Structure formats: C-alpha cells, structure tokens
Amino acid sequence: MNTIITPGLVSLDKLTAGNKREVIDALAELVGSAGRSVAAAELAADVWAREETSETGMPGGIAIPHCRTGAVTEATLAFARLAQPVDFGSTDGPADLVFMIAAPDGADQAHLKILSALATSLINDEFLADLRSAETEQRVVDLVAEAVQPAPVTANAGSRGSGAPAGDGEGTSQTATTVGRLVAVTACPTGIAHTYMAADSLKKAAKEAGVEIQVETQGSSGATPLGAETIAAADAVIFATDVDVRDRHRFAGKPVITSRVKRGIDEPDKMIAEALAAAKDPDATVVASGGSGDSDGSTAASGEREGFGRATQRVLMTGVSYMIPFVAAGGLLIALGFLLGGYNITEVAEDVALGNSLWNLPTPDQLPEEFLGFGALGGYLGAVFFTIGGAAMGFLVPALAGYIAFGMADRPGIAPGFTAGAIALTMDAGFIGGIVGGVLAGAVALWFRRLSVPRWLAGLMPVVIIPLVASLVAGGLMLLVLGGPIAALTSGLENWLSGMTGSAAIVLGIVLGLMMCFDLGGPVNKVAYSFAVAGLSAAVAEGNTGPLMIMATVMAAGMVPPLGMAFATFIDARLFSAAERENGKTAVLLGAAFISEGAIPFAAADPLRVLPASMVGGAVTGAMTMAFGVTSYAPHGGIFVPFAIESFWLFLLSVMVGAVVTALTVIALKRWVRKSVTSAA
Which residues are designated catalytic? Predict the structure, then answer.
C-alpha cells in the first residue's frame, strides 16, 4: 500500500480559512506536522507560486493546488474537507474539497504515476461523493488507495477505470456512432494534476459526443508519443497546454484548437466541438510546419491570444532556462581556477593548459611572474579549470539568444539566434544584446514560418531557408546597425570616466558601481571594467594608488548583483520560484568570484526590479570602497585573491553592505508590485 496519504494528512471539517492562500498555508503546516516536510513555509510558497500561474479550482467544488518542490521528502497528498467553501477560481463556484499534491524534485516514476492516477479520479462523481460523506480520516485514506489502484483491462481496449491515470496515447474506442477522429496533447508546468485531468475530461466529452480521440499526456510520469499513423488519421488536433508542446512539428498541417490546460478540464465539450468544426473549415488555424506555434500565433481558436506579457515571459524564460547550466558550470570552474592557480593565472592559462599535462607539469618559467597559486599542480589545474570555464561562459550570450529565438520560432530559430548572440558577444553587447539579437532572429524566423509556401518547398524551409535568411537579417542588423551606437557609447563613457578622477573619488565610485550593475557583463559594464584594467599596469609602475582604487571599486561592485540576489532568496524565499532559489545558491559562489553574470537569470526574468536594485547596492559599495581607499592589484578573482587586495576586510564589508542593500531593495520592489497587482484585481 502506497504511503502518499496517511490519516495525519487529512482534515475533515476542521479547517476554516477566508481565502485560498490561508488554505494552502494550513495544508502545508499539516504536511510539516506529519513529518513530510522540514520547510512548510517553502512548500506553501512553491504551491502558491504554481497557484498564481494558473488557478486550480475545478468544476464540482474541488481544488487541487500542487507543485514539484524540494520542500517535501516524498510524494505527498494532503486533503481538507472545508467547513466553509473557499474560492479557488472555478467557474462553478468555491471548493469544499481541497487536495494539495506535492511531488519532490527527484520523485520516481512510480510515485508520479500514483499522483497522476489520483488526479484523474477527481473527475469521478462517485469518488467525490464518497469523500464528502467520509466520517473518518482513515476512510479518506482507503478511498484514495482504491482510486490509485490500476483498473483491470477489459476487452474494449481504450478506456480506463476512473482510478487509472490517463494513459499516453490512449483514448475512446471507435464505435459505429463515431463522428470524427481527434488527437490531443495535454501538459501543465508541473505535469502532475492538470495534465491528466484534462486528458480524462477530453476523453469523457469525446465519448459522449461519439468522437474517437487519442490523448498524449506530456506529464511527469512519462509520455508515450502518439503514433505517426494515429496523427495522420486524425481530422484535427487539440493542444490543452500551459507549456510548449514537445515535437509539435509532428502535427504539422492539422487543424488545431489551442488553449490553456485548465480549459481542457472546464470546457472539454466545447473544445471537442470546436475541433470538429475546424476539421471542416478550410480557413481554420493549422499547426505550422516545424514550429512551436500556430500559423497565426493564437493560443486558442476561439479568438483568445497569448498576452504580450505572458508571451514575453515565456520566451525569456526559455532562453534563461537553457542558459543557466552554462552560468553554473562556467562560473564555478573559473572560481576554482582562481582558487588553485591564483588571479594571475589568466595571463598564461591557455598556454599552460594546452602545453602541459598531469605528467608534464609547468615549470616556474611557464607560470606567471610572482605566481600566487598552489605549486605546479595547482597552476596546471587552475589553468585547465579557467580555460574550460571561460569556454563555457563564452556560450552564455549565444545560448540566451539562441533559445529565445527557439522559444519564438522553435528549431528553425536556434541557428539564427546563436549567430546573433555570437555577434552581440564579439561587440561587447552583453546579455542585453543577446536578448535583442534573439528576439530579432526569432521574429524573422517566425515570420517566415507563417508564410504559405508550395509543398515541395515546405521541407526546405525549417532546415535551410529560414536559418539562412534569419541569420542574415538578425546578424546583419546587429553588426551593421547596432555596432556603431555601441562603439560611440563606449567611447563617450570612457572619456566621461577619465574626467571624474581626483577629488570626485566617491562620486566616481558611485558611477562605477552603477555602471558595473547596469547590464551585468554588457557594454556599460565592460566600459567600466576596461577603464579599471587599463590603468592597472601603469599604476603598479608609477606607485599611483588612484587606478588601484578604481580596480577595487569595480570588482567589489561587480560582486554585488549575484550576492544580493542570493541573499534575497534566503531572506524571503516566497518571492522567488523554486528554480530561482536554486540559482541563488549558485550565485553565492559566482558573486564571491566576481562573476556578475550569476545575476543574469534573475535579471532576464524580472529586469525592471532586479537591475535597479542591483544598481542601488552597487552604488553603495562603490562609494564605500572609494571612501575607505581600498586598492586591488588583481583585475579579477573576488574574495579568492585576498593577497592582492589591501584593506581586504574593508573591501569585504563594502561588498556585504551593498549586497544586503540590493537584497532588501529587490524584496521591497517585488512586494510592492505584488501588492499593487493584488489590489487592482
């Protein structure tokens, strides 16, 4: 017997709450009391973040708030029969039965299938009636256990018992009354509940309408793709999803009805009717060849279109999600390189890494003068780590741009996006240039995908024509149109900075701090850094401490954004998604090593709050380091080069104060925006 639910996870008519947030908090506390979570507040925050994405109220007076989270130790179901129903956003009124499902990040397939089976049972009226009449907590546990047991296979293959999960590729059986053939895909961000409930709702509605339907559930418990013959025989396709459909090109040319996954639960009969109508309409929206979107970019055939804000967030988050591994791997390797080989290993890193081996360690004359690492082995490993890390970090901007274009235009956008991102990188345009390049490439590729072309040409469009033309247009615009303004801006900023030395040291520190945090490795950041490095060698020879102070200021301010974002996730985890909290842990080391790009995942997802908060903290740090007269002989390394920083503890104090200011500022901005949105609603 599975242990997804125990009597200690059941509340019958005892829980009273005024709103759904209070219900979620109470159920999270119930999970914590049952020993399933040591971080009930984090669990509640993750469930609430999912709830804000899409309300989980369902017809029939039920609600299923759920999430995947690291805050539970095993797959868990908490159940409450409310004394007073609470509105969870369902079209037919408030919910009196609330099921909170929490799957751990590393949940195995067996547990995920159990959760999926439970989700499908929630549309069974008899199951819900038994729950409403249950007199004991143990009775609820027994009902759930019965619901998730596999149903026996009958001779009439195709349909399942109410307690079985919606099978991938399964559907209603064909009968003499069949009036059409449909295929469908259902998917939600967590892939636990809505995915399978939508599938079963569509099957039930199709059966009542005499329609044959096969449904592919792209959920957490696995997905078996629909067969090519099944898709080819279908009259139309339904996409009830909150995330991009995997391998959408398989359905190219089919009339399509697209909606949020919740509509597949609330209005399955209408979606079936719309799909049948689309199959007979020669002007209906069809799935584009090789694409992630419909030919007209709509999200529903009913005229509903994806909002600009949601579309922008989806595209940016696609780029960021693919970029994050490069940030983590590259940044950590660079930090290890500095730790083992010293900050000045950068002078010879490539030569040492390529010209030596573990059996042929570098000699003292191959290492930098006044080598600061851990012997020959440390020098060699430091050079290797730094070289590999630098190569990985070099993919940040191209990967961001490439997968932004992918989010807009699917696979045809990848090559143009990477090309535009690489050009942005060579021009020191930073991640802002990557975003611009990715959007340009994606827009051009998407426009070409929507063109109606002869069938003989359609096969060449996604693999030859679109990548070629989109790369030329996006790359050309980046190179020919944007290069001039970036160069002019760089020159102007360098001249401006040169005139602010001397008595205006603190003002200069504020300006440098703002610049280092303005675009996190972009052109403005690079101007400030180049200005600092340019005067470093002359300062050592002449004994001039001014350039050394500038170097310390630039490095300290550049450490603030990732550290500030990390601190913010620690201080108020509820304001950040689970992925952002994980990024916050990585950002600690990236910030400590003076890798400002560690804050890019946060900035790309929420630039209007993260970048200003980072600039405020950077300005404070810049002013403090200048006021303290901190100097640095190292152009890089952060806390891993204390031997090269005079007044190191004052340097560290300045960084910590600025990071705390950034953390508190971004928390205040997120809370203020959230409150205004809530009040407006």
Answer: 66, 188
